What we know:
Layout: E1 7-11, E2 19-25, E3 34-43, E4 45-46, E5 49-55, E6 65-67, H1 74-86, E7 88-105, E8 111-126, H2 133-138, E9 140-146, H3 147-161, H4 167-183
Parallel strand pairs: 2-7, 3-8
Antiparallel strand pairs: 1-2, 3-6, 4-5, 5-9, 7-8
Amino acid sequence: MKYLDNLLIKENKNSSLKIDMEIIDKTIDLSKDVDSRIVVRGIVLIENKILVVYPKNSKVYGTPGGGVDEGESFEQALRRELNEEVGATNVVVKEYIGNVNVYRKGKYSSVFNPIHHYYLVDILEFGDKNLVDYELELELECDFLDIDYVINENMKSIIKAEEQCLDFYRNQIVILKIIKELYMR
Length: 185
């Protein structure tokens, strides 16, 4: 699978978590500057559909979430991010799924190291989204879409574009396949 050729995926088989892994872009030099960021992501499922966010004019999909701010707990950050990106006003955190430690090309440093913490959540109520500036520029949308459709569209976009900015979506393909296997048999 061409879109995964440059990825080294290491799963921690001894972990009690459902997801505990590293995804490393084999083309980066890990001895260079590393910019780390703690990230939380919400997995919201309804039957075979998953809640995703995406730029209005693009067919690249990701799970909602974002960085944990100083002084925030992971769950506080998760609730804030879900409110911003999808308008979630009543969130039930069902389960901590696990984490993915990613090493990929950085925008502001040689290596970007987001450490994603994934939670299975239910959203009981939706209100207005509260997008931040860069999300407004992207005209970030959200929707429940078939998980196979999301995976296939991300693969097509990555194969066509071969852009650095799509590294996040390449990693999302790996995670979405795992989520499908865990929760959508």
